[in-house]
Amino acid sequence: MSQQHIPLSVLAEDGSSVDGFVRAVSPLAESLVQILAEELNIKFSYFQHNCSANTCYLRLNRYPTCPFPSKIVGLLPHEDPSFFTIVHQDHIEGLQLMKDGNWISVKPNSQALIVNIGDLFRALSNGVYTSVKHRVIAAEKVERFSVAFFYGPSIDAVIESYATPPLYRKFTFGEYQEQTMKDLKEAGEKVGLSRFLL
Ligand SMILES: O=C(O)CCC(=O)C(=O)O
Ligand SMILES: [Fe+2]
Q1: Which residues touch 143 (CB under 8 Å, ≥6 apart)?
Q2: Among the four 14, 103, 139, 151, which has the fewest Cβ within 10 Å?
Q3: Catalytic residue positions?
Q4: What are the structural domains of the chain?
């Protein structure tokens, strides 16, 4: 597969479809974060302080056709490292979610958006919101595209469980990213939030 990461701050307001997507999804992300934060009594100012067009980004995913779809995964199983992610997929099946130990296929719908809670909201909400493990399977005959909008903070943002007793120790987003890189290098996979369990 190929991926392109674009920080929102470098997107030109050029009327392109990527620009249009960001302009439609950014206010949606702001509304969602207000609703999710209010449920937990977390102040919206926390997100206003830590998240901006310099810290949120788009990922453009392209999954080329694959002659051995049963042997090759399009995108490896992972939880997103953001507060949450808003995904727009095309009409090709491929995205799967882990539920009760089984992979469940998400019915493709190019008229709908998918919202995935990421590890940071899981930690902040003390596990009330759950980051769902997902992957993308490869397809033999058709190419697939998706766009993911990652609502995340700056590297110095402090992530602290809002409830007591906390399930996770306090950490910065920078620490989380460093740990992820280390795990990818040493263990070959992302271990994720369980590294920060108390
Ligand atoms: O392609 C998809 O449907 C999901 C993409 C995704 O999970 C990601 O970019 O993190
Ligand atoms: Fe993802």
Answers
A1: 62, 63, 64, 65, 92
A2: 14
A3: 144
A4: 2-158 (2.60.120.330)
